[in-house]
Inverse folding.
């Protein structure tokens, strides 16, 4: 019987304050292959970098993993935030990691960031 | 919006190989050992695909390589337009061994600044200078007034005194002298006129002649030889004479002696000396008092009134005392033919009276 896992789109960052760094909630992708993030913002000349961290540590068990090792993925380029308004889409495929999260490293400016995630497995 | 993909797309392809002298050779660039670099061969072909030989003589031959290239930088293409130099204007670097005589940018900038400043200066034009030149005398040197430039000396100009010229002080001194001379000249003229008048007057005077003057001179010389009495001699002789005329006392009279053969001198025995001088003392006491003899007195009569209560003593030319002098009882009188001051003295008591009637020669 065919089976396909998916996570309906939901906001991992509903209204992030871009006056500082923002770290989204983590998403369990142990049984998923592809992840997509949509990032949008508006504010007053916010500037910074968006990173996607992954880890193999069971971040759901903080007692056992109080300091999980998050590693940012290399997109081959810097995902920059600039301008008073903007948005990015991040399409990640063939993810073999257990957990994933999105992070905003602020450089300057202020604003509000919204991030949604959607994930699905390949196959049927 | 930007799209980011993970994993990032990586393009891979196998190495490119060419046949070099029949041998497969991989094209590569070896930056470590540039000699190992195998470049991609490139050939120029004509429009029909016929390979062309190329020359790199930049247009000298028909097949010379001509490469069109655009020079620029990250901002954009180089600016070849004329006008103001901008950021895209190509700069030229001068070799370090360029001749030292080349001006630096700083120098050129300074020259530009000076040139700009000079351009702003209102230099005189040729026409202006020509007009100004026409107002000046044609040549140097003194000229007539009509051909000379009208000038006016500054109000505070002080011209130096020419060498040898009189100074102001000297001129002022000369002026003073001239003024004095002028005044004196006037006085001289007046005096001259007066002198002329006097001379005219004198001209009418019968002046002594030379002969007369010679005679006077001779008489004068004769007189000069006379032993005239001097003032001192006359003064000494005058001192030996009585000061004035008239009878005087013996001491003031000239001593004379009657001639030994003097004839008899008649004497008037009846000529009585004047007795006009009367004197009296009414308060005689034991303190002596004096009757002063009048001038020309030759004698006196002295009397002690009978009303006296005491004897008196009288003395001529001396002080009478109780024991010195002539005692005179009250009511007595004496005549005395000699004159002199009479001292009187009361033997005792007070307010004794003494009367004297002098005999004075008229």
């Amino acid at each position: 019987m065919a089976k396909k896992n998916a996570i309906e789109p939901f906001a991992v960052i509903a209204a992030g304050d871009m006056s500082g760094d923002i770290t989204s909630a983590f998403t369990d992708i142990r049984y998923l292959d592809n992840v997509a993030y949509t990032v949008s913002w508006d504010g007053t000349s916010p500037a910074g970098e968006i990173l996607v961290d992954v880890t193999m540590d069971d971040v759901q068990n903080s007692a056992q993993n109080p300091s999980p090792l998050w590693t940012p993925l290399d997109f081959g380029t810097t995902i920059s935030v600039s301008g008073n308004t903007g948005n990015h889409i991040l399409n990640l495929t063939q993810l073999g990691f257990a957990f994933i999260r999105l992070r905003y490293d602020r450089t300057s400016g202020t604003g509000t960031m919204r991030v949604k995630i959607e994930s699905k497995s390949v196959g049927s | 919006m930007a799209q980011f993909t993970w994993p990032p797309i990586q393009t891979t392809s196998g190495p490119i190989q060419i046949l070099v002298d029949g041998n497969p050779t991989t094209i590569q660039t070896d930056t470590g050992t540039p000699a190992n670099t195998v470049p991609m061969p490139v050939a120029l072909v004509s429009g029909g695909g016929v390979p062309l030989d190329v020359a790199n003589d930049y247009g000298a031959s028909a097949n010379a390589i001509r490469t069109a290239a655009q020079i620029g930088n990250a901002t954009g293409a180089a600016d070849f337009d004329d006008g103001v130099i901008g950021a895209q204007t190509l700069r030229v670097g001068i070799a370090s061994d360029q001749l030292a005589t080349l001006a630096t940018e700083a120098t050129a900038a300074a020259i530009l600044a000076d040139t700009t400043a000079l351009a702003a200066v209102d230099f005189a034009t040729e026409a202006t200078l020509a007009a100004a030149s026409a107002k000046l005398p044609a040549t140097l040197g003194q000229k007539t007034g009509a051909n000379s430039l009208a000038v006016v000396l500054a109000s505070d100009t002080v011209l130096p005194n020419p060498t040898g010229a009189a100074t102001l002080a000297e001129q002022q001194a000369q002026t003073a002298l001239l003024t004095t001379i002028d005044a004196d000249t006037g006085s001289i003229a007046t005096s001259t006129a007066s002198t002329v008048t006097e001379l005219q007057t004198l001209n009418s005077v019968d002046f002594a002649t030379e002969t007369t003057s010679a005679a006077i001179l001779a008489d004068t010389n004769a007189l000069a030889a006379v032993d005239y009495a001097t003032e001192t001699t006359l003064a000494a002789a005058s001192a030996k004479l009585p000061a004035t005329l008239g009878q005087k006392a013996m001491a003031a009279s000239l001593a004379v002696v009657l001639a030994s053969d003097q004839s008899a001198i008649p004497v008037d025995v009846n000529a009585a000396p004047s007795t006009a001088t009367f004197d009296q003392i009414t308060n005689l006491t034991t303190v002596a008092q004096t009757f002063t003899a009048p001038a020309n007195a030759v004698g006196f009569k002295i009397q002690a009134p009978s009303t006296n209560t005491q004897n008196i003593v009288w003395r001529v030319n001396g002080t009478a005392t109780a024991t010195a002098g002539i005692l005179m009882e009250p009511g007595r009188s004496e005549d005395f033919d000699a004159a002199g001051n009479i001292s009187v003295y009361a033997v005792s008591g007070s307010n004794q009276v003494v009367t004297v009637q002098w005999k004075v020669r008229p």
Q: What stands out?
A: Chain B touches chain A through ten residues (CB under 8 Å).
